[in-house]
Amino acid sequence: MDILAIIDQLNQHKSKVKTRPRKDEPLKEYSGKTPQELKGMLNTMLKARRVEREEKLLLRKGYNRFFIGCGGKELIDVAFAENLRKNDPWAGYYRNKAFDLHRGSTLRDKMLEAIGDSRGKNKGMQIPAHPAYPELAIIPQSSPTGGHALEAAGISEAIQHPVPVSKQSLHPGGTYPNDAVTVCSIGEGSTSESEFARAVFYASFYRTKFIAAIYNCGWAISVSVEEQFPEGDPTTPFEGFQRFGLKILQVDGTDIKDSLAQVKEAVAYTRSGKGPVLMNVKTTREGSHSGSDDQTFYMDPVDSKWHTYNDCVLKTCNTFIEEGILTPKEIKDMWDDLDKKVTEESQKAVSTFQPKTKELIESLVYTYDFEQVKATWKKYRDACKIDRKAKFKRFHEKGYFSIPEIPENIGPMTMRFAINYTLFDLFLLTEDVILFGEDVADFSGHMIKEIDKQSKLKGKGGVFLVTKNLQREFGNSRCFNTPLDEAGILGRASGHVYQGRRPLPEIQFLDYMSPGYQVLKDRIATTYQRSGGLFKMPLTIRTTYGGYKQGAGAFWHSEGNLGTWMNIPSLLIAVPSNAYDAAGLLKTAWACDDPVLFCESVALYNRRDWEGVPIETTIPDIDELIPFGVAKIYNEDNSDLGIITYGTTLQMCRKAAEVVQEKGIKVRIIDLRTVKPLDEETILQTAKDCGKVLIVTEDRFAGGTAPTIASVITKGEGLYSLEAPIKLVTAIDARVAYGVDGDNACLPTVEKIVTAIEDLHNNY
Description:
The protein is an alpha/beta fold. The chain contains 28 helices and 21 strands.
């Protein structure tokens, strides 16, 4: 119902009232809340409705560009805010304006959000009703609402994780206390997303302190809940989980007594450790989905009338009047006061509007600064009192490594050993490091505790043995297997970041990142920008990529499509080609406050040479980190032709350069090492020095890395240095076929690179 109609109706209220209770008297029928507390709840409900009205007015005036309402959800919002602690994390969605306000956000916050002002908490980065308030334990919101459920479940798991968060963390000691309850509020439509189902699964599986509150108004835009779930109840798919501690509650979110009682019960149940809670909260929709929707086009007028007369604000006001808690005049005075305050804040915001600049927006995409990375690394190193020499000697005695030396003193090694050594160093550095994914542990199931049996087995440690012995040495709390669920791996990883850790989730193959794409692109990678810089996401996602697996890769084990991931703002991408770079870049990635996709070439893991070209290297000293966006140059004095590449194809290019050198062609090779950021300076200098440029990548042409690299040259002054068109050797426009013949046909080879070099050198 329109709020002005509600106020008018209340003014005409003629019902007799009961004896008025004292302001500080706990009322049993209201779950012990006093009249003063109940008045505060109603004040917030009216405030949220008044802010919503102002947003509509600003939209008509052209100051607000988007409107999405919370009408009908205010009561359950304030019921939660009353029963939760201020440090219980809240993972909400765009209907939680009343919760924000009741927990402590201000009218100024809401007005600045409405007009997208750069002074807003999130710097005007998102449409209204998508706030982020770290001081209020409200994590950043986004429009794809299914993914936030996984983040919330991840936070609840991270809170009760047995490994403590260090004092060196961005959130020393942990962001939220061990007994904190994490709440995910979500619309009934979004519960159809697979991420929500996985969130309920994880919360139930680990019995975390988690509440999923489904705000069920019956409509997902124009789709009825009856077309989504049996009986129109989103909790029905989860009834089996009640065997494992899940509590399911049916809540009347239009009735204040029922809402308070059931929220109180839910919070007490899950905080006690009995299990998570799933709540189907019946609410109304006091307006269409958003400003671009009109529910009168599709909603039965009878249903519309039910929504109107069951408005939680109207019902709460009537209940308070009838039970002597407030009079109609007191409510009217409360409204008038709010009306005045909102109008004043709105006028201030509009009259002093500060627009966003390109520079502001760009400053909120990446935090990366190599000096800051080194400072973070030093902070952890200074706090670490472990004797590395003694530790690695002990690891040798346990049979983990063949040499009892610290890694940098061992000599040349393969990339697999370099990464394994570096992971051991990171685990020694701080307990903030945890690693999880599919098959990453040495043992699983009951074998985790069978130490005697473990000693007689080699253990797994990843399908390529890169994480071997980590679980055996550091325990299952720090290195553990997960279900085969990429979205779950990434969602849970972000939860650990919110709690203060720097986890290392592993996605077994880049090919299988797809199920986690939404969580990565829309949640993890947007955290810093959508929160206006209030939240950071230091998260290193390790994954394997590429073909050349002796023909065994084929369709879903050979993807090198890094261009797909380059197109995600805020996601950094490292692609080492040797042991030295793998170790140095991995430390940089871990100490960086941005999400990093760390791509490891399976083809290079165990290679000692590439057709006779030696590729084993030493690894850097423990405190030597390699900066992102700084390429490595091979044969810098050569200038007949420049090759720009990275990862696996770097070694092919080195071999090809040896072949053509015998024919008098002197080739310079650039190993980019990271493709996000690119070393544009070196790319341009190569074009200027050599005049002829060949770009070699495992990625395909369309939307791939090679065209992007080429554009660095052609978009500006580099174009005028070229003596020939830029030539590309990429994967063909097909998925990689099975067998060695499939690799050879689909991917770059030494022979293809040699042919391209000769053509470019001889014909231009």
